[in-house]
Design a protein that fits this description.
The complex is a heterodimer of chains A (524) and B (232). Chain A is α+β, with helices and mostly antiparallel strands and 524 residues long. Chain A folds into 3 domains: 131 residues, no CATH class; 129 residues, Beta-Lactamase (2-Layer Sandwich); 155 residues, 2-Layer Sandwich (Heat Shock Protein 90). Chain A is built from 14 helices and 12 strands. In chain A, strands 6-8-9-11-10 form a 5-stranded mixed beta sheet. Chain A has a 4-stranded antiparallel beta sheet with strand order 2-1-4-3. Chain A has a 3-stranded antiparallel beta sheet with strand order 5-7-12. In chain A, strand 10 and strand 11 form a beta hairpin. The radius of gyration of chain A is 45 Å and the shape is rod-shaped. With 232 residues, chain B is α/β, with parallel strands linked by helices. Chain B has 2 domains: 116 residues, Rossmann fold; 101 residues, Winged helix-like DNA-binding domain superfamily/Winged helix DNA-binding domain (Arc Repressor Mutant, subunit A), CATH 1.10.10. Chain B contains 9 helices and 12 strands. The radius of gyration of chain B is 18 Å and the shape is globular. The chains are: A alpha+beta (524), B alpha/beta (232). The interface between A and B is large, with 44 and 44 residues.
Chain lengths: 524, 232
């Protein structure tokens, strides 16, 4: 239902009675009004001849209402004036003069003119509302049709072509769509992706205006506050707050391309296009994600295969080396060296596999209460050979709270930290494991007496394939500390590296927050 | 018993690993049977009735875990050979009745020790029933008394139960789940905290030097092992 019907039922009824509303004043309207006045005057004369002159002024309402409702204020007012004068001239005594003897007739004339004003206003309102309703219906129809077309689109190129074609048709304008060469690369130059009628390049000034619209995500060109000299009006096609393309409208005769009513329609259409673009981008992301997953799957498969294919021969080599009984001290030394290297290779493979588990998100963790004493002992047990001549000092109180940790991940953290301390610490220097309260939580530090960490490198040491300056003579995979960090974070813990406050050497610390602690009462 | 040809079935698809194990086992007096896949392994278990099986879980034709039950049914003690980080797999194998595990890359001495422990437990629990003695510790299971250097040490009931259970399985790994179910009862299988506290209590009362390797060995994520009587 058009809104005009509800808000002005009287005027609506009048308009219906006089046929479909037309716009503004016109020569035809004038002519019809004058003819109507003539007819009414003739009819009035006939009535007056029969001695009935009381309500002749009412007859003049017919042309006045007609002109007022259908042809607007100008025609209505003029018709009202002419009707009043005609009435005065032909029917108000003294007859055939414009003089008025009885003041009550003046009132009749004022009523005629007033009616013309009121009717023309009501009629104008109804016409405006009807027009608005029609425009709304057209606009909604256009948007709905456009949305249907957009649904079938799943490539950017198709979207550009559709935008150019449909908007050119709906608004009767020239259109152009510009977008970067490659999606998502905002720095690249804009190229014409589609245009109706077709063309390849914009003028320099138009190109700058388009670029400006793209970069600022605001309209440019005639009617906007930027680049008004451009031939085209450019409107960014937004997805989120970022422009993905620029849409241009223009007209052959270089007038303003859009009328006031078309601008909101174009804005709606471009909003729709923005939504379609977001959907297409999401679909592309899904596709890319699928590719990443496929790559991760391949990488995991490759690593599991490397893990198996390297470890099987390593197991044999290590087993054989351990089974050999040397006869001389020299042979013993050679054998120890061979074993040490083979074990290093084994730890490297293990670290490689661990790193991939962190990197591919394949880390499974199950937190359970762990006794740090037990964890430290188990790690030292596994590293007896690596530690060799390094004395080990354990400063872990027996009554510490239990720590919620994944026992296996924590084990690997400790092994890597102790291994690191043995590798980078002073030859035969002590390796210290020390648990201390830190704030509400606990800090488990592994301390060595080596050269320490170069200032500023404290974070970098936890990166992948990072070795401390001048320390690579001992070899190492550069993965151990990265694994410590990855595993610690998986358990809700943090890591820190620093030089020891007292004496020489580095301190690598596992920071266990209070949430990971479980207090226990001393009695068993 | 040793000379009466203890048969060990080695199941592994890698010939080099089988050769390595054969090289370690034969000089120690065992008869070695080899199988490189699950089907052959089950056939050998039926025909040759091995006493001990060394089972690699990564077999080409079947999940090694599926073999544990049939192998045990055939009368064999199963020792699993597994990759280092396969903790869940180790626990699953133990739950399904494997006696113990060896982690790759393994030390052949360690494998021999595991085999000896397995054979000792095969001979029957009565060997240990009377009690166990290690270092200066003496566990009298009958009297439910623990002595250190001859002096009685008072353990809380759960602590004693834990020590007794580990002693009954001396040298073997015992899973958290098994310990919790046996000592604290069904429904407590995941209360690892109880176990940690009891183990801590035992250590505090029986062990003096914190830096010395503990006898009650923690196998991260798997269970505990009383590291005694491993044949050395």
């Amino acid at each position: 239902m058009p809104p005009g019907r509800r808000r002005a039922p009287l005027a609506g009824a009048l308009v219906s009675a006089f046929g479909p509303a037309r716009e503004g004043s016109s020569a035809t309207g004038w002519l019809v009004s004058l003819v109507l006045i003539a007819v009414v005057t003739a009819g009035g004369e006939t009535l007056a001849a029969h001695g009935n002159d009381a309500d002749i002024s009412m007859l003049y309402l017919i042309p006045v209402i007609y002109a007022g409702t259908r042809h607007g204020l100008g025609t209505g007012l003029a018709t009202g004036l002419v009707a009043a004068l005609a009435y005065d001239f032909f029917f108000v005594p003294p007859l055939y003069s414009l003089l008025v003897a009885d003041p009550s007739h003046v009132l009749s004339m004022v009523i005629l003119i007033g009616t013309a004003v009121v009717c023309s206003q009501l009629g104008g309102q109804v016409r405006r509302q009807a027009r608005l309703a029609q425009a709304n219906a057209d606009r909604n129809g256009a948007i709905a049709g456009f949305a249907r077309l957009l649904m079938g689109i799943n490539r950017r190129e198709d979207l550009w072509a559709l935008l150019a074609r449909e908007i050119a048709r709906l608004l009767d304008v020239r259109t152009v769509v510009l977008a970067p060469d490659m999606p998502g690369e905002s720095g690249r130059r804009l190229v014409v992706k589609a245009a109706v009628p077709a063309f390849d390049r914009l003028d320099l000034i138009d190109g700058v205006a388009a670029r400006w619209a793209y970069d600022t995500a605001r309209p440019t060109g005639p009617g906007s506050d930027a680049m008004a000299v451009s031939e085209w009006q450019f409107i960014p096609v937004l997805g989120g707050n970022v422009a993905h393309a620029v849409f241009g409208v223009g007209r052959e005769d270089a007038r303003m391309a859009l009328t006031g009513a078309q601008e909101p329609l174009l804005a709606s259409l471009l909003d729709q296009a923005g939504l379609a673009l977001a959907r297409i981008a999401a679909e592309e992301d899904m596709l890319a994600l699928g590719k990443v997953q496929e790559r991760d799957r391949l990488r995991a498969a490759l690593l599991s295969s490397i893990g198996h294919d390297l470890r099987t021969p390593l197991t044999t080599v290590l087993g054989m080396l351990r089974a050999i009984r040397p006869e001389t001290a020299r042979q013993q030394a050679q054998l120890d060296s061979a074993r040490g290297e083979a074990e290093r290779l084994d730890r490297f493979v293990a670290n490689l596999i661990d790193m991939v588990r962190i990197e591919t998100g394949g880390l499974e963790r199950a937190l359970e209460p762990v006794d740090l004493n037990e964890a430290v002992t188990a790690a030292l047990d596994d590293l007896r050979r690596v530690l060799g001549a390094h004395p080990v000092i354990v400063e872990v109180a027996r009554d510490l709270p239990l720590v919620m940790a994944d026992p296996v991940l924590l084990h690997h953290c400790l092994i890597n930290l102790v291994d690191n301390a043995a590798k980078h610490g002073r030859a035969d220097g002590p390796v210290t494991l020390r648990a201390r309260p830190a704030g509400e939580g606990l800090a488990l530090a592994v301390l060595d007496e080596g050269p320490g960490i170069v200032a500023g490198e404290e974070q970098r040491v936890f990166g992948m394939f990072t070795r401390l300056e001048g320390s690579d003579r001992r070899g190492g995979t550069g993965l151990g500390l990265a694994i410590v960090k990855g595993f610690a974070q998986a358990m809700g813990m943090e890591v820190a590296a620093a030089n020891r406050a007292e004496g020489k050497g580095a301190a690598f610390t596992l920071l266990i927050p209070s949430e990971n602690l479980r207090q226990v009462d001393g009695a068993g | 018993m040793m000379r009466d040809a203890v048969r060990v079935l080695v199941i592994d698809d890698e010939p080099a690993i089988r050769a390595l194990l054969r090289g370690a086992l034969e000089p120690a007096g065992y008869d070695v049977i080899e199988a490189d896949n699950a089907a052959q392994a089950l056939a050998s278990a039926q025909v040759q009735a091995p006493h001990v099986v060394l089972l690699d879980l990564g077999l080409p034709d079947r999940d090694g875990l599926d073999l544990i039950a049939p192998l045990r049914k055939a009368g064999a003690t199963v020792l699993v050979v597994s990759a280092r980080d396969a903790t869940a797999q180790k626990v699953a194998a133990l739950d399904q009745g494997a006696d113990d595990y060896v982690t790759k890359p393994f030390d052949t001495d360690e494998v021999l020790a595991r085999v000896r422990t397995a054979l000792r437990h095969r001979a029957g629990p009565d060997v240990l029933a009377a009690g166990l003695r290690f270092d200066d510790i003496e566990i009298d299971l009958d009297a439910r008394v623990v002595r250190r250097a001859g002096a009685e040490v008072h353990l809380a009931p759960k602590e004693f139960a834990l020590l007794a259970e580990l002693a009954a399985n001396a040298g073997k790994v015992v899973t958290h789940t098994h310990l919790l179910r046996t000592i604290w009862g069904p429904g407590h299988e995941t209360d690892v905290e109880y176990l940690r506290v009891a183990a801590r209590g035992i250590r505090r009362k029986l062990e003096t030097d914190g830096a010395a390797p503990s006898r009650i060995r923690n196998e991260p994520g798997v269970g505990y092992r009383l590291a005694v009587g491993m044949g050395s």
